[in-house]
Amino acid sequence: MDDALLSIENLTVTYDTLAGPVTAVDDLSLAIGPGRAVGLVGESGSGKSTVAGAVLDLLAPGAAIDGGRIRFEGTDLASHDRATRRALLGRRIGSVFQDPFTSLNPAIQVGDQIAEPMMVHLGVGASEARAMTLERLDEMGFARPAEIAGAYPHQLSGGMKQRALIAAALACEPKLIILDEPTTALDVTIEAQIIDLLERLRTEKGLSYLFISHNLGVVRRVCEEVYVLYAGRLMERADTDALFDRPSHPYTRGLLASLPRLQPPHRVKRLSTIPGELPDLLAPPPGCIFEARCPFSAEGCDRPQTIRVAGVRQMTRCHRHAEIAGEAWPSRARLGHDFSRKGFGDALVNVVGLKKRFRMGGLFAGIKLKPGLPPRIVNAPPVVKAVAGIDLVIRPGEVVGLVGESGSGKSTLGRLLLRLEDPTEGAVEYDGLAIERLPQRALRPFRKEAQIVFQNADSSLNPRKTVGETLRRPLALFGIVPARERAKRVGDLLEMVRLPRAYATRYPHQLSGGEKQRVAIARALATEPKFIVCDEPVSALDVSVQAAVVNLLADLRDELGLSYLFISHDLAVVAQLSDRIAVMYRGTFAETGTADQVLSPPFHPYTLVLLASAPRVDGSAMPDRSALLRDAAPGAGAPDGDGCPFFARCPSRIEGTCDELPPPRRTPAKGHAIACHLKLDALPTRFVPAAPAMGAAPGAVASAGPE
Amino acid sequence: MAEASVDLEAAPIAPRRRARRRPLPSSLVAGGLVFAAIILVAIFAPLIAPYPFDEMHIRDRFHAPSLTYLAGTDEYGRDVFSRMIYGARLSLFMGVLATLVSLVIGVPLGLLSGYMRGAVDEAVMRILDIMMAFPPIMLVLLIITLTEPSLWKTSVAVGFLFVPAIARLMRSVCLDLAGEEYVLAARARGEGASYILLREILPNAWPPIIVEGSLRVTFAILLAAVLSFLGFGIQPPAADWGLMIAQARGYIERAPWIVLAPGLAMCVTVVAVNLFGDGLREYLDPRMSARRG
Amino acid sequence: MIAYAAQRLVFVVFILVAMSLLVFAAIYALPGNTAAIMLGQFATPDSLAAMEAKMGLNDNFFVQYWRWASAFATGDLGQSMVMERPVAPILWDAMAKSTILAAASLFFVAVIGIVLGVVAAVRRGRPIDGAIAIFTYLGISVPEFFWGIVLILVFASWFDLLPTMGYASLSDGIGPFLAHLVLPVVTLTLTLIAHVSRMTRSSMLEVLQSNYVRAARARGLPERRVLRHHALRNGLLPSITVLAQDFGWLIGSIVVIETVFAYPGVGRLLIFAIQRQDIPVVLAVILVITAVYALANLAADLMYAYLNPRIRYGRSVG
Amino acid sequence: ADDLTISYTVTPDTLDPAKMKTGVEYAYSLLVFNGLTGYDDQLNVVPDLAESWSASDDLKTWTFKLRDDVTWHDGRPFVAEDVLATMKRMLDPEVGSRMRVNFELIEDMSAPDEHTVVFNLKLPYSTFPALFGGYQARIVPYDHIDTLTTHPIGTGAFKFVEYLPGDRLVMEKNPDYFVEGQPKLDKVTMRIIPEFATATAALEAGEVDIVWDIPPEEQEKLASSSVAHVDFVPTGSWHGIIMHNEKEPFTDKKVRQAVYALIDKPLFAEIAMFGAATPTHSPIPPTSPYFDKDIPIGTADVEKAKALLAEAGFPNGFEQTIYVPAESSAMERLAVSFRDAARQAGITIDIQPIPSDRFFSEYEGKVPLFTTNFYGRTTMDTMLYPWLHSSGSWNNNLWHFSNPEMDKILDDARITTDEETLAGFYKRVQEIVVEDVPGVVVYQLNHANGVHERVEGFKSSPLMWPDLRGVSLKN
Ligand SMILES: Nc1ncnc2c1ncn2[C@@H]1O[C@H](COP(=O)(O)OP(=O)(O)OP(=O)(O)O)[C@@H](O)[C@H]1O
Ligand SMILES: Nc1ncnc2c1ncn2[C@@H]1O[C@H](COP(=O)(O)OP(=O)(O)OP(=O)(O)O)[C@@H](O)[C@H]1O
Ligand SMILES: [Mg+2]
Ligand SMILES: [Mg+2]
């Protein structure tokens, strides 16, 4: 494969840890031709990011390439000196790191970080680079690129940062782009838009991708060819369709089986998983590395393995691939409890009229000189209404799914519920206690009961504490278990989130993205809470771990009556777990209702877009989103007045009404509310644009739908 | 509970058996050993020093280094080498005590004001501004005149002088760290300010504290010298490196050894303390790996 | 932010008031007074009494303070009780000279210190790292007066390259002006550089491990740019604190430097005044130093906010 | 032009001659002002602004005739009114002049004409004219007293130009100086160089011409210099170890004698002053004709000291702190030597340096044990009376010594003009001092200046005054 743009041959990478060397990538070969999109999937911790790091020569300290060659455009990268190799980056090889939260320099405006590589590599001037930056940001679906360019990273939501990073990677249109989980923080509409963009760049400009993702739906959409990694070893390699339709390796099958689906009935079924966990990489088994977890394993599987051909352009590392061909992953799914009939008790969390505003921009943003004698300085920084009036009730044992566009205020809402942020306006009650104005000290009992899994696991873990210390603390703080049992409990918690017990001695920087995420989940569970705000808790997890975690959360809910505010952009996951779903748009709820109500017609026009944009693993075609959305960029909203926030993008908008008056609440059914000026019968019902309902009376009250 | 937690018993307890200890950085070892040696010398000064620190051999004044007087003699004919050894006591005492005082007060103060922000921060910082703008000489003078001066008082005073500097540094570090999400996570857990400060923020703030602390030891020793220079020093004939240098500065040309010996001692101490600090900082950083890429 | 800065500026005034009270009280608390010191051994009860009466030293603390403060507020710095000359010209003269010295030293300390710190961090563990460490530690291994004297001996006495001591005004020509500054500035720089450079090294080490620096490298930015543009901005925060602090330390060191180099600056003026308990001079000098120092810290605080946008002073919106 | 630079370690506190107390101030005032009288090299009183003087027989009325050819630097002629104004100030306690006590014996004064001044004294005083040669007794212009501290005007050889505190004091030639041929220099700059190491380096580099009052430890450096040398002269100034006679344990004469016995004066002079000093018994310097060479200069006698201590009830010695002015390294060495010597008799001494200004106002004369220094005086009476007479001003500030015989001798000496009798008196004074030990005057200092080779005509003066009037520079 000498015409390959990038070819990796027999790459082996080890990390030096206190416990001994960990082989994170073992004898991996991989090739990417020009204009090709190659996927790299696999369980969290299987070495995907390590491969990316090796190609970029940016492995963490303590990592060493113990074998193999990496060639780019025919030359061995190891033969370049540092500077030459560095010069390739950005210009010829672009990259998006897995963690969008820490990959942007907190002290530099986002726009400058994107413009910088252009100025360095393309030699363009500052103003030209700026113009190009705005263009890139525009492509990324930002409504007001200039504002984003002027913002600092901490002022952006997770998805916004991720898009900014993708924009930076694309800045110089490199030949090869390594995308490490580029869509974890993106909501489906933006994800779809970015996937479209990537696709266009590939076909038009011949870019190649190494696409690392656990999101099989996205992989199916983007990639032509997929490599499946497990515990550092290549398990299977195949063209996309072949892989998804005729997976040859048991592990691949397990992954596919773990996927949640969007079809009803929701929340009553458990996801199927791959039981067990990654093998101990300190001492990997000599034979099939997957054997311990493989339902098809048989005698002889403990023999050393080589990779072999399994079909057309398909290779697999399984002794028994021929024998088991066609056998389905055994579904051990059992039904979960169903509380729907019992109903829930009184409100656990009760939110009324909640609002939160932030100011944007740099040190001097918004400072203007007001003419006059003497001239006055006025300080009127631009303000973002992150949460713009939310009413919400969460009852014990209830899971409220929160979906919505990136930057719509989901994380902010979650933080407000836990008083991690002081609301600008409105009330938050927890178990009858008004927490929004209580002093921190009085919140202590509340803190034990209400926990959060942060969207960004990496920065939410103290870099100087081992996993064990991190997990032990809540146990000690709330006296959950006596001191001598804590070590064991830490181990239990780790296992609950599918991590080896030995990880207790690791520091966060020694974990992969998904592993950190799981530690964060374990930490939230450690306090034995009653209510957890889960902010994208599974976004960094591969489907099998995701399934395990979702099942775990579901079990806890069913057995202990836990409540969750479950924030995710993955509708299928949300559907799987939630009793009710709230669709958020620009700080307000566009639609709320039970999972079934929200996921079936009538839809809010925005909900419809979300559903239509969700990637499908079955390979079915996506509906034409352009019919569902106006050209306006995501996040574009009504002009500052009271109008509908979705106005600018809504294909069914009513000029003169939607842009001026706040949308009324329509309630097609009990517990189902849609904030829209459209009359109930005018609301879209299928994935096709509804005809704009002309002359709908503003504020008309819809009758309650059939029960 | 969940199926994920089955067969717990089968799972091996965390494999401590193979865990090896992080290797000590060489700077930590080297600096630590030298510093320990200096401390030992200080403790056992009477046993090591060939002469009492104040014994005069007036006939041998300004004697060049020789076998009798390893580092020569000073203007009274006292053995410079012995004085240097005794000097370690006072200088280290001063340096270490002053630094401890400043750290013990300054670190919590800085942490608090950086974390509390708002009114507490402003109040603490403005008070420190005043403290810091208060000229050291003035303070020392106050102490000397209001009370009979003594080494430990001077050390404590110097420690106080250093408080604002330490506190300000801590505050700036803390301002930065307080914005980290793991701090937010601790707050979400309902941790009190003291835990957050001591267990979440402080461990990440060690590097600047260590660097600052080891430099402060040096500065305190130097300040003692400067005080001697300005006439507010240790009582003669006590040997203190700073005082030795201050008093011998007039003989730099005639008898350079009188200055060089304590200078060298200070130099070694400074390098050892700071090397130790560098090493400690490295050792405490989990991300610094023994193996470098 | 502007409002915050304005607020802080107002606060500087408060600091000055507090400081003046403090100093006044301190001097008041000291045994003896200017009259006693001026008369020294020769004090006879009648002359001491007469002199105290003339100087108003017998008045109540608040009367004395008020007398001084009301004049000070109108810009009258008063008269030196010892020298019996107006304080203002003496103070500004000394201040101007010290400022030149301090500013030049601070400049070199900042530039060289930061550069050395960055180089040491980037080359961590290499020989150059060690060499920089030794060099910077050498500067603080012996007191500044020692370096001052050695430098004088070597450069002024033995090689006769530079003037030994003193000060030349700009009107004496730029050459002599600079020549007189070289040795004191070098000495001060030598003693201060360790602090800045070690702190810079430490914070740079931290920053260099960060993900965003890795990301910047992944964008193919030349290492220089990564360092200067990405790492330094964040790594500089503690260095700024240290520089602002060293400003205070500098004022202490400057006394020594001024003594060794016979440089007529504000440090020696202060010592002179303190030793004689010359209240108007002590107060004027300390207040000016305090003001400068408070402004330096204000500048440092604003600088943080500039370098680290996550830090916001004042209240958040809403 | 002939510009001479002379260095001092401290800056003048004041430019007002009446209030002066340091060497740098004296040097300036002696260049810019004149007294009525002055001293020659042998410390004989000679005319200055006064041409001549005469006393009444009872030594109580003194008449001074003033020169009529003297003008102030602003051109106004010098008149008797200037003298009266000066002396009035001198006696005003508000001014706080050091010499007020000396002049307090003036009953009244008058100016019969423009060039005559008459003083009536309260008591007879034989050396009254010598007082006018004193450092503070400079005559100032009656019409410019207000500006004395900012722009002094005098009659001296040099005119004041500018004073930059902490930096320099500049004076220029007074072309109208009343002594023919003086001054020779065009300009004199007094530079303040606090550090002697710097000053000597500057001297060698030619940046200064004279380093005033160079301490013994610095003199060595110049010994090998090719461009400068040390010029020195013995003085009447002394260093002493002072015991407060009214404070324990020094109330006991035996203790004082023990201390005296411990002090090896030649050794102490060697250690403290590197030999640039002469051991002595009393304020009377060895250079004086009255010095008693027959009294042995003590070398230590530890056994005797121990015996005395035992008799006094201190067989095991005692503990005591000795205070020293911090800025003087020589006195510190003196204290260190004393500490070493005292230890041999079991006395434990703590040395406590105190910043000078504070030392002189707070410690000296108030603590039991301290070291101090005194400038030499010009007459026997001023040298002895204040220190040893029980009503003497210094005595009350120092050792609080009282001996009736001593009082009588000193009183008598004041009204005696007969040399023979005086010599007898002063011999007895020295004997009493050694016997009774009010305190220990250890040695008389040399006054030394570092002088650049290009300076001509400079001679160190026992009054420590750098007389630059006749000095010139080689080119
Ligand atoms: N610095 C390190 N030191 C030690 N072990 C490490 C280090 N970094 C990663 N590892 C380990 O190496 C393995 C592979 O990590 P890698 O980050 O490549 O996984 P990944 O496939 O990207 O996972 P994810 O999907 O969760 O991001 C993991 O088991 C991880 O724990
Ligand atoms: N500290 C802050 N300062 C200024 N603006 C902020 C701040 N935090 C959030 N915002 C803004 O508030 C809005 C909502 O942010 P939030 O993080 O809640 O979005 P999100 O729905 O969680 O998005 P994502 O799915 O991308 O994580 C965004 O426009 C963001 O820029
Ligand atoms: Mg990864
Ligand atoms: Mg978010």
Q: Mean of residue pLDDT of chain D?
A: 87
Low-confidence parts of chain A lasting 5 or more residues at pLDDT below 50?
688-707
Q: Averaging pLDDT over every residue of chain A, what do you get? A: 81
Number of strands of chain D: 19
Instruction: Measure the end-to-end span of chain A.
Output: 62 Å
Number of helices of chain D: 15
**How many beta-strand segments of chain A?**
26
Family (chain B): Belongs to the binding-protein-dependent transport system permease family.
Membrane topology (chain B): Multi-pass membrane protein
Protein name (chain B): ABC transporter permease
Main location (chain B): membrane
Task: Write a structural description.
The complex is a heterotetramer of chains A (707), B (293), C (318) and D (475). Chain A is of the alpha/beta class. In chain A, helix 7 (188-205) crosses helix 20 (605-613) and helix 14 crosses helix 15. Chain B has a single domain, classed as MetI-like (MetI-like fold, Orthogonal Bundle). The longest helix of chain B has 38 residues, at 193-230. Chain C is mainly α and 318 residues long. Chain C contains 12 helices and no strands. In chain C, helix 5 (87-122) packs antiparallel against helix 10, helix 5 runs parallel beside helix 12 and helix 7 crosses helix 8. The longest helix of chain C has 38 residues, at 223-260. The radius of gyration of chain C is 24 Å and the shape is globular. With 475 residues, chain D is α+β, with helices and mostly antiparallel strands. Helix content of chain D is 30%, strand content 24%. In chain D, a hairpin with a 5-residue loop joins strand 4 and strand 5 (61-66). Chain D is globular and about 70 Å long. The chains are: A alpha/beta (707), B mainly alpha (293), C mainly alpha (318), D alpha+beta (475). The complex binds adenosine-5'-triphosphate (2 copies) and magnesium ion (2 copies). The site of one adenosine-5'-triphosphate has 25 residues of chain A, from strand 1, strand 2, helix 1 and helix 16.
Task: Jot down its keywords.
heterotetramer; B: 293 residues; mainly alpha; MetI-like fold; disordered N terminus; C: 318 residues; 12 helices; 0% strand; disordered C terminus; binds adenosine-5'-triphosphate; binds magnesium ion; ATP binding (chain A); ABC_transporter-like_CS (chain A); ATP-binding (chain A); transport (chain A); Oligopep_ABC_C (chain A)
Summarize the structure.
With 707 residues, chain A is α/β, with parallel strands linked by helices. Helices cover 27% and strands 22% of the residues of chain A.
Question: Which secondary structure elements does this structure contain, and how are they paired or packed?
Answer:
The complex is a heterotetramer of chains A (707), B (293), C (318) and D (475).
Chain B: H1 26-43, H2 45-48, H3 80-116, H4 118-133, H5 136-146, H6 151-178, H7 181-188, H8 193-230, H9 241-248, H10 256-283
Chain C: H1 2-29, H2 34-39, H3 45-55, H4 61-73, H5 87-122, H6 127-139, H7 144-158, H8 174-208, H9 211-218, H10 223-260, H11 266-276, H12 279-307
Chain D: E1 3-8, H1 23-32, E2 37-39, E3 45-47, E4 50-55, E5 61-66, H2 80-91, H3 100-103, E6 106-113, E7 116-121, H4 128-131, E8 158-164, E9 168-173, E10 187-192, H5 196-204, E11 210-211, H6 216-223, E12 228-243, H7 253-262, H8 265-273, E13 277-279, H9 302-311, E14 319-325, H10 329-343, E15 348-354, H11 356-363, E16 369-374, H12 380-388, H13 393-397, H14 404-414, H15 419-436, E17 439-452, E18 455-456, E19 472-473
Parallel strand pairs in D: 1-10, 1-11, 14-15
Antiparallel strand pairs in D: 2-3, 4-5, 5-7, 6-7, 8-9, 9-10, 11-17, 12-16, 12-17, 13-17, 18-19
Helix pairs in contact in D: 7-9, 8-10, 12-14, 14-15
One adenosine-5'-triphosphate binds next to helix 6, strand 16 and helix 12 of chain A.
Membrane topology (chain A): Peripheral membrane protein
Protein name (chain A): ABC transporter ATP-binding protein
Family (chain A): Belongs to the ABC transporter superfamily.
